Structure formats: structure tokens, C-alpha cells
């Protein structure tokens, strides 16, 4: 899950070729709001949220189509914007319903990024690269420990079911290798 930054999407595809990518619904809502006339935004936002409030994947797709139909007559540019994003926004429906809330937005990642930024801002200037790596590593380890000890962000049983569902619906992919250029500093 991420915003639709072209470089980020390309990097995800190059680094993790078999990974599913989901456009963050929060970031998309901001993009859609920019394309929507201000007086119409509350109505459009309600329609957009109605898509995510559906109980199953089939209902999500059906509601998406109903929303497009409702918008096409009154706000054709907004309908086109939404139609263009269909695949990116509905990728979460290929996964079990239990993990939809975790994968349709990248808000947890952004919270973690803000915490890293807050901790590095407190220090201000780092004497060397290793010191910032230690600090960021400690923040990430702390987050990992919270997820392990407390609530599990994505339970192993749900991930196993998700993997089984995805592999049973896909045809076996041919093994392919690509030469990826090494990162240099």
C-alpha cells in the first residue's frame, strides 16, 4: 500500500515483482478531492466511503459501479478520475476480509515514519551514518516488539489464508530472473 508516486510504484514492481500493490485510499481521497468541485465534495466523499463499507468483494465491485453511474451524469470528470483508479483502489478485495483494514491504507507506515522523524529531530545532528542507523533501527525494533507482544498487526493465520487464497487463484508463474543493478554509495 502506498500513494501513487510513479517512482515508488515502479520500485515496488521491480523489487517485488509478484507483490500486489494497493493504492492508499486516504491518499486517493485527497487526489479525488482536488478533482471535485468544493460544494460536491461531501457527497462524493460519502459515495467513496460507501464503496469501502461493503461486506464482501463482490459487493465492493458492485457499489463501485453504482458510484460511477451516479457520478457520470453529474460530475463526469470525477467519474473518469475514479474509473481510472479502479484497479489500484480495489486490489484489497483479492485478500481475506479480515485484513482489508490493514492493507487499504498506509497510515500505520506513515505513523512509523513520523515517529522516526520525531526521534531524529530530537537528536538534530548525527556524528556519523552509523549513529542514525542505530537510532532508526532502535525505533523499528521497538515497533516490532510492540507488534509481537501486543496486538498482532497481521496475524499469521490470516496471512496463511491470504497466501493460500492468492496462490489457488493464480496460475503457476514461470520462474524468471532479472539482473537488478546493485545500489552503490
From TrEMBL:
Keywords: DNA recombination, DNA-binding, Transposable element, Transposition. GO terms for biological process: DNA transposition. The keyword DNA-binding applies. GO terms for molecular function: DNA binding; transposase activity. InterPro entries: Transposase_mutator. Pfam families: Transposase_mut. Required for the transposition of the insertion element. Belongs to the transposase mutator family. This is Mutator family transposase.
Amino acid at each position: 500500500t502506498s500513494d501513487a508516486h510513479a517512482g515508488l510504484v515502479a520500485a515496488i514492481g521491480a523489487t517485488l515483482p509478484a507483490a500486489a500493490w494497493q493504492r492508499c485510499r486516504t491518499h486517493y481521497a485527497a487526489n479525488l478531492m482536488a478533482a471535485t468541485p468544493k460544494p460536491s465534495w461531501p457527497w462524493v466523499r460519502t459515495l467513496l466511503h460507501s464503496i469501502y463499507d461493503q461486506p464482501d468483494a463482490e459487493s465492493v465491485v458492485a457499489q463501485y459501479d453504482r458510484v460511477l453511474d451516479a457520478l457520470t451524469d453529474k460530475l463526469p470528470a470525477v467519474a473518469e478520475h475514479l474509473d481510472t483508479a479502479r484497479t489500484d483502489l480495489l486490489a484489497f478485495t483479492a485478500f481475506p476480509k479480515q485484513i482489508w483494514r490493514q492493507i487499504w491504507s498506509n497510515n500505520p507506515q506513515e505513523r512509523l515514519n513520523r515517529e522516526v522523524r520525531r526521534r531524529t529531530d530530537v537528536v538534530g545532528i548525527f556524528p556519523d551514518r552509523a549513529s542514525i542507523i542505530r537510532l532508526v533501527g532502535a525505533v523499528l525494533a521497538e515497533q516490532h516488539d510492540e507488534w509481537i507482544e501486543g496486538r498482532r498487526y497481521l496475524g499469521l493465520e490470516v496471512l496463511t489464508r491470504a497466501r493460500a487464497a492468492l496462490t489457488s487463484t493464480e496460475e503457476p508463474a514461470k520462474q524468471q530472473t532479472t539482473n537488478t543493478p546493485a545500489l552503490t554509495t
